[in-house]
From TrEMBL:
One of its GO terms (cellular component) is extracellular region. Belongs to the nematode transthyretin-like family. Keywords: Secreted, Signal. It comes from the Eukaryota. Pfam families: TTR-52 (PF01060). PANTHER family: TRANSTHYRETIN-LIKE FAMILY PROTEIN-RELATED. InterPro entries: Transthyretin-like (IPR001534), Transthyretin-like_sf (IPR038479). It is found in: Secreted. This is Peptidase A1 domain-containing protein. The keyword Protein biosynthesis does not apply.
């Protein structure tokens, strides 16, 4: 069982009702473990289960469009990996908190791995 959480922001403002997919990378096709959306405050929590024998490589996928008001931007599908070693096949439950995810930084290709998990692994 994998529990993932975090909050999407755009220029410091919450991104409400934004689709988020929890996936697991596989050799041929990636598995969808959970699908959800952010709440009115930009928070998301997904719970997924994968029956793999080997360690898994989970990530979240979403489409972002966040830019400064005077600029035009196009939505981009992005993958945010859970850092290696945060998920273990030896635990019954794995929890990872992405913390605040600033989508402006992602869509403008700044520091993508800003502060994931700074709040700790508990949610």
């Amino acid at each position: 069982m994998i529990t993932i959480g975090g909050r999407f922001l755009c220029l410091g403002n919450p991104v409400p009702f934004h689709n988020v997919i929890l996936k697991e990378a596989d050799f041929f096709t990636d598995d969808i473990l959970a699908v959800g959306a952010t709440d009115k405050d930009g928070y998301f929590f997904l719970l997924g289960v994968d029956e793999e024998v080997l360690p898994i490589t989970p990530y979240i996928e979403s489409t972002f469009a966040c830019c400064e008001s005077e600029k035009e931007c196009k939505p981009q599908k992005e993958r945010l990996d859970i850092p290696f070693g945060q998920i273990s096949i030896f635990k019954n439950e794995n929890v990872f908190n992405f913390g605040d995810i600033e989508t402006f930084e992602i869509t403008n290709r700044h520091n993508i791995y800003q502060n994931y998990g700074k709040e700790g692994l508990g949610m």
